[in-house]
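Lecture notes, unit on binding sites. The following record was shown on slide 14. It pairs a sequence with glutathione.
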Amino acid sequence: MHLLPNLSKPHSFNGDIVMLKIWGRANSSNLKKVTWFCEEAGVPYERIDAGMSFGVVNTPEYRRMNPNGLVPTIDDDGFVLWESNAILRYLGAKHSAGKLWPADLKVRADGDRWMDWCSLTLWSAFRPVFWGMVRTPEAQRNAKEIEDSSKKAAEVLGHFDAALAGRQYITGDQMSLADLCFGPVVYLVNNVQWKRPALANYDAWYARLAARPAFQKVVALPVA
Ligand SMILES: N[C@@H](CCC(=O)N[C@@H](CS)C(=O)NCC(=O)O)C(=O)O
């Protein structure tokens, strides 16, 4: 299988000259952050399936790019980068400065903080709920772990809901990278069967994200 055939050179894909290659299966939350950014910012990209049933991530070629064997990884005209939030910040600064990547230092820091929080606090709390309810056969589920994680996820979502009070988007009136970082995670939060608390600010914000055509195209995929 040719995983990286001439992929460090720009080439044509779907009629565009593509500099940016993105490795990752379409239903990976961390991959979706990156493809959603590209869709919103109008950055042409080629996505190459990798991870889980697609394999690829354990090949020597892939491990040379990303020793973690995880997705996403990007190759932007020869520049290889992994870690989805770092990828978002790189692409944001390159293609969307002053728009999705806020120009104001404090607004940007506010968004950066929430991006880290999304990965480290929200996803850490919710991941066992997702994994247990979606990726584990019912007979093998650890009910106590799902219950404990549900309580933790409900608690931290309450903090996030409070922070969204009076805001259209996470950093204020403009959508930014922070919203793109949360989108794929909260899509799961809202589409996995679990005891989600009532969250009024969060619901209004989520509806704004979910209404976007790019969200529907690359984020709102079947949960699996
Ligand atoms: N901190 C990393 C986490 C990457 C990660 O855990 N990716 C998952 C998919 S969301 C993965 O590669 N899972 C194994 C696989 O798909 O084979 C990032 O944000 O990029």
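Take-home: The first strand starts at residue 11 and ends at 13.
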